[in-house]
Amino acid sequence: MQMRNPTFEVRPSVITGDTADVYLHRTQRILRNEGLNPTVSMQFSASREAVLSGSLEVKALISKVTSEGNRELWAVEEGSHVSQNEVCLEIKAPYSSFGLYETAICGVLAHQTGWATAARDVVKTANGVPVVSLGAHNVHPSVAAVMDYAAVVGGCVSGSTVLGAQLAGTAPVATVSGALVQLMGTAVQAMLAFDKAVAPDVQRIAYVDPRKDIVEQVEQVARASGTNLDSVRLARTAGGRPVAAEDVQRVREKLDSISARKVGIVVSGRLTPERVSQLLDAGAPVDVFHDVSYIASAAPVAFLPNIRTISDREVPQETEPPPPNPRLRRLL
After folding, report:
1. Which of 105, 203, 210, 331 has its CA 20 to 30 A from that of 247?
2. Are residues 306 and 278 in the same domain?
3. Could you tell me what percent of the chain has a pLDDT over 90?
4. Which of 64, 52, 55 shows the shortest CA–CA distance to 14?
């Protein structure tokens, strides 16, 4: 997947090893005491089928902690489908230069790949309907931008955070907030205030209050906003009920009846592949999906680190080692 060159922040606590497993600190100290620092080749393999993401963030880390000319970093391309036990990343360098960061490398690959894989599942099911990840509410703020980036690697058109969009080379996507609708009093007042305050190149995506009649609000917002309105977002209906295909159809019919055919319909919520499939199979005329938690809450894909060579000598393996992976590309 071709991405702009993202600039990942490598936190000081990672560089100092404060986030590393303590046994790695002890390993480093013992090797220093013994005067040992061999060049090793360490491989990282996926524990299951997945969509790979995270190699470029690992590159940012390895660039900071190893010396140019004395390191190699190889990886499968971001966004590629990888198989169980496939070697997805390989580092060759003096062990003391990167061994402490085994924890961070595995964690980066595990979480980014988990998010990218979940995104690919939703995007595939959406079958051409664009998907945006709005899951920042549901992850720790220190990883929200990386989650957005990984979602784009998995096929989402964008995320909702400014930094995540910068990493992915996209524009952040968001709607008028539910808080603004409540504070202003109505969806119409919120949309008109948004229109006055926000630059014209930002999409006008109205949010309708699920506690009120959504079709009636959509008509009111569309009439008041005129040609400025890009889309309306449907999150829930009265009583907290998820939006159904017939709700989307009624909104589409209302928009068409008032000559607002260009106004799109965004459906948001926890968009599991099953939920997306149900809506589309029932004929819901959805123009964009905004997922707020399925991607964000995806389980990490564990990566298994393994030293293959020490000073260019093969290390005996527990199982038959895989042949060299021709998909590995040199990053450093």
Report:
1. 203
2. no
3. 92
4. 64
